[in-house]
Amino acid sequence: MAGTKTVEMSGNGRLVVPAEVRRSLGLRGPAKFDVRVEDGRIVLIPVITVPVDVNFPITVELAASALRAHKEAGPGLTRDEVVAALGGSRE
C-alpha cells in the first residue's frame, strides 16, 4: 500500500483504519493497538495475540520467545507473519 490516507476523528476520539490499510497489514477486527506519540505523530502498533487452543498449543517459553522476537523485529510484522514464524497456522 502506498501513499497517505486521511481519516477523521469523531468527537469521542474514534478513528476508522481504512480497509486498504487493514488488508495490507493483515488486520481483522476487532483489533488492539499500542498507541505512542513520536515526534509529534500518533503511531499505532498492532498488538499481536495468539489464542491458546488445541490447534495451537503455546507454552510460557514459546510466548516469551515470541515477545522477544516481536520486540527485536519492531513494528511491521503482520499477525500471519508472527504466527508463521512460530510454526503455527491461523486456521
Question: What can you tell me about this protein's structure?
Answer:
This protein has 91 residues and is α+β, with helices and mostly antiparallel strands. It has two domains: 46 residues, Pemi-like Protein 1, Chain: D; 44 residues, no CATH class. Helix content is 31%, strand content 13%. It contains three helices and two strands. The chain has a two-stranded antiparallel ribbon with strand order 1-2. The longest helix has 14 residues. The chain is elongated. The protein starts with 18 loop residues before the first helix and ends in a 6-residue tail after the last helix. The model has no long low-confidence stretch (mean pLDDT 77).
Low-confidence stretches: none
CATH topology category name of the largest domain: Pemi-like Protein 1, Chain: D
Radius of gyration: 15 Å
Class from secondary-structure proportions: alpha+beta
Produce the secondary structure layout.
Blueprint lengths: L18 H7 L7 E6 L2 E6 L13 H14 L5 H7 L6
Antiparallel strand pairs: 1-2
Short description:
This protein has 91 residues and is an alpha+beta fold. The protein has helices at residues 19-25, 60-73, 79-85, and strands at residues 33-38, 41-46. The protein is built from three helices and two strands, in the order αββαα.
